[in-house]
Design brief:
It is a single chain. With 378 residues, the protein is of the alpha/beta class. The chain has two domains: 241 residues, Type I PLP-dependent aspartate aminotransferase-like (Major domain) (Aspartate Aminotransferase, domain 2, 3-Layer(aba) Sandwich); 132 residues, Aspartate Aminotransferase, domain 1 (Alpha-Beta Complex). The chain is built from 14 helices and twelve strands. Strands 1-7-6-5-4-2-3 form a seven-stranded mixed sheet, with helices on both faces. Strands 8-9-12-11-10 form a five-stranded mixed sheet, with helices on one face. Strand 2, helix 4 and strand 3 form a beta-alpha-beta unit. It is globular and about 75 Å long. Bound molecules: pyridoxal-5'-phosphate. Pyridoxal-5'-phosphate (PLP) binds next to helix 3 and helix 4. The site of pyridoxal-5'-phosphate has 14 residues, from helix 3 and helix 4.
Length: 378
């Protein structure tokens, strides 16, 4: 079935007993066995739960992966994925990535004796060169990256990692499998903060990890059960319900984002734009090749810190908050919000300073969004 059909019928046809069209929520912690050596397929909900399984199978089908796993947050999914590595392994990582992922890697995963090498992963030649170093076992790419929305060439990186037997992981949160399927280009694992577009309503925290091969899927399933940060049945159901409208929502998100980006790009107080949907953005052509859309995240720089403060306290349609991918348009100040835990030297090197703002463009009427931007920029 095609993507829209898989999504429209997410969780349907799974309850022959009642014929329920909406996947039932199964809050049961444990499941009764008919007899010794016989099972309904479910024993204990940390290991597997029918509602979570319906979600996981939907996502695996969407991506064309051997297995998918739903976690209690995007970071829990990432934590499970990084546990696939062994002590002494090195992983190449996108340098401008979500600050919480940086915190997970730098302040936590290093206890697993892993080494992380940060790089601009939109620079394919630089990535391919570093992959030659001994001990590199993984490549983790956030694309488009956060907050500068740089685009990695998934096909080129998929080829380079495959040739060297390196595990290729893509955080595809900003695009979702509706727009881009990284496994088609050679990714071994995709990861999502499902809190964002997949959940899409600012009302749940969830994460997903999808594995292309059965081997990686089995190992991830083992880690999920062994560490236990699973998604509960109610949130699994909520996510299944949200998935049904994902293609429609993404169309409107992107249409609104294109309008907002064109408006901002021509504004006298906007000094720099970061939106891969703009034709002069360095990632525009690559993203057009590997994605059915450019997404709805925009970053931009204004001319002064004072203007940032004015904007954040004056917005009336945008809300000053730290998330993305929901109907409500949000404005975020990465330096003090999403990227607050990055070391000052790293922020400096990336150019992530106090004049940078990030927008998650929502589903409101475009004239209200543009009106708000126009008012606060004056
Ligand atoms: C790209 C990206 N990956 C992962 C995460 C972490 O997800 P969660 O907040 O669901 O733990 C986020 C959160 O903002 C994100 O933006």
């Amino acid at each position: 079935m095609k993507t829209d059909t898989i999504l429209a019928q997410a969780g349907s046809r799974r309850d022959p007993l009642t014929g329920a069209i909406s996947m039932p929520i199964h809050p049961s912690a444990a499941f009764q066995h008919p007899a010794l050596g016989r099972s309904t397929g479910f024993d204990y909900s940390r290991t597997s739960n029918p509602t979570r399984k319906a979600l996981e199978e939907t996502i695996a089908a969407l991506e064309g992966g051997a297995g998918a796993f739903a976690f209690s947050s995007g970071l829990a999914a990432l934590d499970a994925v990084f546990r696939l590595f062994s002590p002494g392994d090195a992983v190449v990582v996108t340098e401008d990535l979500y600050g919480g992922t940086y915190r997970l890697l730098e302040k936590f995963s290093r206890f697993l004796n892993l080494d992380f090498l940060y790089l601009d992963t939109s620079d394919t030649a630089a990535v391919v060169k570093i992959l030659e170093q001994p001990g590199i076992k993984g490549l983790f790419v956030e694309s488009p990256s956060n907050p500068f929305l740089k685009v990695a060439d998934l096909e080129a990186l998929g080829k380079a990692t495959r040739e060297r037997g390196i595990l290729f992981i893509v955080d595809n949160t900003f695009l979702t499998p509706v727009l881009c399927r990284p496994m088609d280009f050679g990714a071994d694992i995709t990861v999502y903060s499902a809190t964002k577009y997949l959940g899409g309503h600012n009302d749940l925290i969830a994460g997903l990890a999808v594995a292309r091969s059965k081997d990686v899927s089995d190992r991830l399933g083992f880690i999920q059960n062994a560490t236990g940060a699973v998604l509960g049945p109610f949130e699994s159901w909520l996510l299944l319900r949200s998935l049904k409208t994902l293609p429609l929502r993404l169309k409107k998100h992107e249409e609104n984002a294109r309008n907002a980006a064109s408006f901002l790009a021509g504004h006298k107080h906007v000094k720099k734009m970061y939106y891969p949907g703009l034709p002069d953005n360095p990632g525009n052509a690559v993203l057009a090749r590997q994605s059915a859309g450019f997404g709805a995240m925009i970053a931009f720089e204004v001319d002064s810190r004072a203007r940032v403060e004015h904007i954040l306290s004056s917005v009336k349609v945008f809300m000053f908050a730290e998330s993305l991918g929901a109907p409500e348009s949000l404005i975020t100040f990465p330096l003090v919000q999403t990227h607050a835990d990055m070391d000052a030297a790293v922020l400096d090197r990336l150019g992530l300073h106090d004049r940078l703002l990030r927008l998650s463009i929502g589903l409101e009427d475009p004239s209200d969004l543009l009106g708000d931007l126009a008012a606060v920029l004056e």
